[in-house]
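user: can you give me the structure for this one chain? tokens are fine.
assistant: on it. calling the predictor now.
[tool input]
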Amino acid sequence: MLFHVTAEHDHETCPGREEGMGGDAVRIAQRWLEGNDEVKVLGAWGHQPSHKGFAIVESSDFSAVSQLLRGMMLIGKCEVLPVNDNIAARKSRGHWES
């Protein structure tokens, strides 16, 4: 199953606040981007000025996704939504024309 993740924090909880983007806090906070055995991160994008990150992850277990994102949930808001692959659905129906 696919999930759309929106993770955000503010300027006060930003991991880069003290040591900058090369610091240990950022390295640790972004570890989730690597995924794990239960959750595959298919893509991730960020908008640094707003302290927001977006990702598409794949997993058969919502709890595994929540566990992967636990660190992000501790520093800000994290929204995880199950989503459908509409391109794959359209192709499987035979509606893809190109």
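assistant: here you go. The helical segments are 24-29, 62-68, 70-75, 86-92. The chain has one domain: 2-92.
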